[in-house]
Amino acid sequence: MVERCGNTVSAHESSAVRLGAALAGFARAGRDKVTFLLSEKIRALGPWLEQLLAESLGKDGKGVVPVLDEPPGNPAVYGPDRLFVALTLEGDRSHDAALDALAGAGHPVIRLELKDPLDVAGEFFRWELATATAGAILGVNPFDEPDVARAKENTARLLAQWTRTRRLPQWPAVAEEDGIVLMAKAGPKPASVAEGVTTHLAQAEPADYVAIQAYLEPSAEIRRPLQAVRALLRDRLRTATTLGFGPRYLHSTGQLHKGGPPSGLFIQITGADKEELAIPGSGYDFSTLKTAQALGDLEALREGGRRVIRLHLLGKPAQTLQQLLHLLRAATRKL
Question: What secondary structure, in 3-state letters, does the chain show?
């Protein structure tokens, strides 16, 4: 890969430069939702690609939105803001039918084939150079993360407040329904959680995306209903959807959320922790730290003019997420 993309070949011959030029060109043309499909054996490469693109390019109101692990859908549910990128192993035909259907429906599809799982090492080189190329074309510096600091500063301030008062500020609860508390700081008070969420989602424009930020255990039983929520919102709104578990996403897609295109509709989901584990020498526990990080990011998003609501789950998260799914199925019929 170094020989095929290094400084011994021209930009025209470099697969990395061509890939970066394609990412930037499609983004400029409105196709900035880079939707990945990966072979199962190299699926773990996805989160690295997500972080690389989001953190490097999402700034100055520009960038691309990496869409990872979104449930597959009919080509008709995807809008004209999509670019599909498939990284598959030689001999893996599991995505061929879907990719052919997407291409047949007019969606651009980039296919990269690896001969062996160990070839992901070469992909690190290709994608890093491609990202730097895309940054140069888009006019952003891919080597900094200026907007991540805002959430960190907010978190530090909130933790200092906790140390002094043993309390953290909370967003106002404006509605409660089926074990779900809606918290928001904008607009008139809704009559129910369903009405509040519907009002939030009704803001979606064709080129927007819905970002679910879940401060919950990233287990299979939690991920399943959240994936179902993604598929529902994607199909009803025809918008791309992303899912990040907090606080991890703060250092993967957090820069994009606050510094990238203002096209995100954010839904932060929180719940009570099963246990509290003290952090030695800090004066607070991990649960308090996580809560401060969630609140700090909420404030940073609001300060940046982003559209965001918070849903707090009162019951067992997996069961309450099923309630949320039922609520959304009914509420989004009106959209």
Answer: CHHHHCCCCCCCCCHHHHHHHHHHHHHHCCCCEEEEEECHHHCCHHHHHHHHHHHHHCCCCCCCEEECCCCCCCHHHCCCCEEEEEEEECCCCCCHHHHHHHHHCCCCEEEEEECCHHHHHHHHHHHHHHHHHHHHHHCCCCCCCCCHHHHHHHHHHHHHHHHHHCCCCCCCEEEEECCEEEECCCCCCCCCHHHHHHHHHCCCCCCCEEEEEEECCCCHHHHHHHHHHHHHHHHHHCCEEEEEECCHHHHCCHHHHHHCCCCEEEEEEEECCCCCCECCCCCCEHHHHHHHHHHHHHHHHHHCCCEEEEEEECCCHHHHHHHHHHHHHHHHHHC
